[in-house]
Design brief:
Blueprint: E1 3-9, E2 16-22, E3 30-40, H1 45-48, E4 65-72, E5 86-89, H2 100-103, E6 127-131, E7 136-137, H3 144-162, E8 171-175, H4 181-190, E9 194-199, H5 205-211, E10 215-218, H6 225-231, E11 235-240, H7 245-249, E12 255-263, H8 275-279, E13 284-287, H9 293-306, E14 312-316, H10 320-329, E15 335-339
Parallel strand pairs: 8-9, 8-11, 9-10, 11-12, 12-13, 14-15
Antiparallel strand pairs: 1-2, 3-4, 3-6, 3-15, 4-5, 5-7
Length: 341
């Protein structure tokens, strides 16, 4: 029997183990993918630590998967895919197709969303079986190590901006320039927004400008972030990528009238925002979840066109534990990516 290698966790918060699994066939509506690269996302900890309901062990995490189709399951051959096609599978790993959001075409908020690493084995492996509706086609211009992170970090920031109320020329701020934010700044500038990067420390200013930011705000100075944004005319949109409720809340008074706070950075604590901060200037707060397979494909096409790439550190699959710990510690620059032979 043929086997393949996975990096799995057998208990909540436990260490990663490199083990062999027996190869299985894709079922109806599924494809088997040879994994070439898989990004390591902070959301993987939801499953590794069993934070989300219904997690079963052992867990093979990873929802920033890039690879090639190796086998088509029954019912997939008439959907335009062929063996050898380069594809990604991201946080959107398939949907139920019959709930109200799915029937309305809003697949990403399906209550039965199939997330790799939660609903089925993820991409910390040499091989993955995934639903065919989760596939996004990788452009020739993108390497697998670039395409993988686009399936979660990329699409989340890209979609968060393009579905916001901002128009070209508007002032748009990106809070945080880490794994999500370093892509958000690049997308904001490429979309024609007057782009503000907000981060901790004066030493990040030059890096923010290299990413395309027109302005940099150091949120550790005595000048409140809201005052700095108002001095620039007020932000039409703040894309909050940092996982800090305090830092997110500090931007609200820097929004312009009818400005919009788009929250994509997950934080466990409540936002300290009063109703009056929203009512008087008709401001909006909106959570934004990732994107569908088509959104991922749009993200990659836009990235290829504008030369936008994630900054990654690639390591072999057998170093999954080290890569995961580096991600958790915040020392990755800026996306850890596991690669297979």
């Amino acid at each position: 029997m043929s086997t393949y290698t996975v990096a799995q966790v057998t208990t909540a918060g436990g260490p990663f183990e490199i083990v062999e699994r027996e190869v299985t066939e894709p079922g109806r509506g599924q494809v088997a993918i040879t994994v070439e690269a898989c990004g390591v996302c902070h959301s993987d900890s939801f499953f590794v630590d069993a934070v989300m309901p219904g997690v079963t062990f052992p867990v093979v995490a990873g929802h920033e998967i890039a690879g090639r189709i190796e086998q088509l399951g029954e019912g997939t051959r008439d959907q335009g895919w062929q063996v050898g096609d380069r594809v990604t599978v991201g946080w959107f790993g398939g949907s139920c197709h019959h709930c109200t959001p799915c029937r309305q075409g809003d697949f990403i908020v399906c209550p039965d969303l199939k997330v790799p690493g939660w609903s089925y084995d993820g991409g910390f492996a040499e091989r993955v079986i995934a639903p065919v509706d989760a596939l996004a086609r990788i452009p020739d211009a993108l390497a697998a190590t670039d395409a993988g992170p686009m399936a979660c970090a990329g699409v989340t920031t890209f979609n968060g901006l393009r579905r916001s109320s901002a128009q070209p020329g508007d002032l748009v701020a990106v809070l945080g320039i880490g794994g999500l934010g370093h892509l958000g700044v690049q997308y904001a500038a490429a979309m024609g927004f007057e782009t503000v990067a907000i981060a901790r420390g004066a030493d990040k200013a030059d890096f923010a400008k290299r990413l395309g930011a027109h302005h940099y705000v150091d949120n550790t100075t005595d000048t409140p972030v809201a005052d700095a944004l108002r001095s620039l005319g007020g932000a039409k949109v703040v894309l909050a990528t940092a996982g800090s409720s305090e830092a997110i809340a500090a931007t609200v008074d820097g929004l312009s009238h009818r400005g919009e706070l788009v929250v994509i950075g997950a934080a466990p604590t409540p936002l300290g925002i009063s109703p009056l901060q929203l009512i008087t200037s008709a401001r909006i707060i909106r959570g934004h979840p990732s994107g569908t397979a088509q959104d991922v494909q749009d993200t990659m096409a836009f990235s290829a066109l504008h030369g936008i790439r994630p900054m990654t550190e690639a390591v072999p699959l057998d170093q999954a534990g080290e890569a995961y710990r580096k991600m958790l510690a915040g020392t990755a620059r800026f996306r850890m990516v596991l690669t297979t032979g």
